[in-house]
Amino acid sequence: MVGSKKFNFLWIAFFLGPGLVGFTIFVLIPIVTSLYISFTEWDLLNSPVFIGLGNYQTLIADPDFWMSLKNTVFFILGYLPSVMAIGLGIALLLNSKLKARTFFRGVYFLPVVTSWVAVSLVWSWLFNPVYGLINYFLSLVGVTGPNWLTDPKTAMIAIIITSVWKDIGFIMVLYLGGLQNISPSLYEAASIDGANELNKFWKITLPMLQPTTFFVVMISLINSFQVFDQVNVMTGGGPGNATNVLVQNIYQSAFNFFEMGYAAAMSWALFIIIFSVSILQMWGERRTKI
Amino acid sequence: MNFFKKITAIGTALSLSLVLVACGSGDQPSPDGSGSDTPPAENVEINYFSFSANPDYETQLNDMVAAFEAENPGIKVKLELAPYDSYFTKLQTLLAGGTPPDVYEMNYENFVSYAAKDVLLDLSELVASDSIDLSKVNETAFKAYQYQGKQYGMTEAFSNVVTFYNKDLFDKAGIEYPTAEWTWKDEVEAAKKITDAANGVYGTYSPVTMNEFFKVLAQNGGSIYDADGKLTINAAKNVEALQYMVDLVLTDKVTPTPAEMSGQESGDLFLNGKLGMVHTGIWMFGSFKDAPFQWDIQVEAGNTNKATHFFANGLVVDKNTANAEAAYKFAKFMSVGAAAAQIRVDNSWELPISTDQTILDAYLSQTPPSNRQAVFDSLNYLVLPPVTDNWAKLSSDADAEFQKVLLGEETPQEALDILQAKYE
Fold this sequence. Notes:
heterodimer, A: mainly alpha, MetI-like fold, two-stranded antiparallel sheet, 2 strands, globular, B: alpha/beta, D-Maltodextrin-Binding Protein, domain 2, 2 domains, ten-stranded mixed β-sheet, 19 helices, 12 strands, disordered N terminus
């Protein structure tokens, strides 16, 4: 019997089963249910009332939704290029023959495995305009620091700085992996041809890192559309609505205003946005390859 | 997995509760007010869910429960506590999941929407058949838990807001202490004399939020809804009130800006001797007890009217509980029971609704503050939040607009016009 199709199927089912049960209960059913909820009006206390596309109509006309989408895009525009550039920079640095580079790799990766809430609380204190370290250092060089988190012009920048700091370690690890896959022979050949370091970076390193970059952009984009923890802890969406991002908006609608249906509709809108952006990105990637 | 995890986090919470609703609904008896399905009150256990005891008054609540169980053998009370910040999210999930506590705590703002959503047991008959002497309780407080003429809850305690003032700072500035006759003008003038920006000392503090605004506009004779329930938030008197609140911060500079507060609580600033006056609740008596300076309280200053905040917590009974009678007994004990009132008074844990002079004398004789009478005088001017279905949302939006006003991005008129247009 060993090796027969039926036997294999049983083994597959046996190994897949536990994971599949968990996936069904905690992922699949919730996803499907949330789709249903998004077509209802539900305050948790009374039974959901089916209202068809009502929530989606509200959403399209809701200035707060567009405001939070705009804030999210602003966050991404600040966050994505910075985290990638700095992450790649550090990866290049730690890929060279530096003393104690394993130690430094660990140090840069540390924030990645730290809890978001802890990181956010610490950075709130660093950004404190009166007692914070950041403004203290700025004052040493004669600069009066801004009121970071209470000024709508700087609040999002503070959130971006915190997020970049936390995530560069992750990007660095991905790029380190990519860098180590580049064959040294390419650099040797370039040296023989008389290329300088800058030429090598632009003509060899960057093109060879293309698959890594694609992956980094994809993952970071998906994650940054869902920015929430740091916003909720550091500003709660304020001051005014300056840092009210999409997921913060969803959270407020669901758990402060108890508009579960509308919150579910916004979650699905967010899903559609992320899905479309990812598709576009994959399509763009394929086109450049041809 | 991260991708899936995050995008479905909310969906999971939602649908799990949906599944639980489905499981929990059909199988519960629903006594219709009379509690006729209730088994004889022997060896029943009721669940009580509370926020006000967390985190400072857990011992006191345990004492109250012990006193209740001694008076009512056969009824056991199982306590569950949650901090205020997460209490209502948990409660809502418990209700949605079909496993609500038998009796739970409410604050006034949420009471109205819960009563409107028909999840509370109408206690009117139980109260009527009981011999509760309404002449021995504060009637306003007791009636706060009525909705459309029916009693849906038992008020357990209330508190209000007064002006706390630092006597040492007043002496230093060489000015008279606040009196009950003070108006906005008097307060601003005193605050200007106390303010010492170089040393980080400010004259007065009250937050620029919706919770404060609905009271300040009442002091100016305004209102958020007119008699017909129409929104009038941008009426001239309300604009004046918001202008006054904002001027304290931006023009008179007697109140610290949010940036100058830089994350500190007003209570801490007061304790550090950095505030001449602070408008806050009588629940701060405990924290201020050991302040390194002399302080007292006074009824808040008004403008054309006097108005003070009033917060009432009460106990409500779940509509579908199987132990309606026991739950009501506990709610009643917490509300008008002498033992519960005594424990409250002895620990300055808000005010019981009892007007029994022997109990209140014990409250009045404690110091500081020496002018505890101001707490009772303030009750003559109390205003309740104009709670409507979308009060939580309106408040949250208003707070965001008010922040913009403080940042100089909008005028008070513009902010209120925006809210009027949005919620009309």
